[in-house]
Amino acid sequence: MYMKVNKIIYIVLAIFFGGLGLHKFYAKNNGRGVLYLLFFWTGIPEILGIIEGILTIFKPSDEEGNIIK
Questions:
Q1: CA 29/CA 32 separation, integer angstroms
Q2: 41 class by beta-carbon count within 10 Å (0-12 exposed, 13-18 middle, 19+ buried)
């Protein structure tokens, strides 16, 4: 299921709170959000969140500033 989310909010959540999966919950991807929460203690979700945030910077947004996630 793909959701339209605000690009700036998604980037901020991914970079600063990626380890907790907040960007996944924001994009209504609850399954992955729970997975990030379960493994936050390993540090891997934090690294993935930063990578996802950086990659999202380069995604084009629509006229309202939204991207499809």
A1: 6
A2: exposed
Q: In angstroms, rounded to a whole number, what is the distance separating the alpha carbons of residues 34 and 44? A: 14
| Cα–Cα distance for residue pair 13/61, rounded to 1 Å | 17
| pLDDT tens track for 3-54 | 899 999 999 999 999 999 999 999 999 999 999 999 999 999 999 999 999 9
Tell me which residue has tokens 């690009």. 7
Q: Is the pLDDT of residue 69 over 90?
A: no
Q: What is the DSSP string of 30-53?
A: HHHHHHHHHTGGGSHHHHHHHHHH
The Cα–Cα gap between 19 and 16 comes to 8
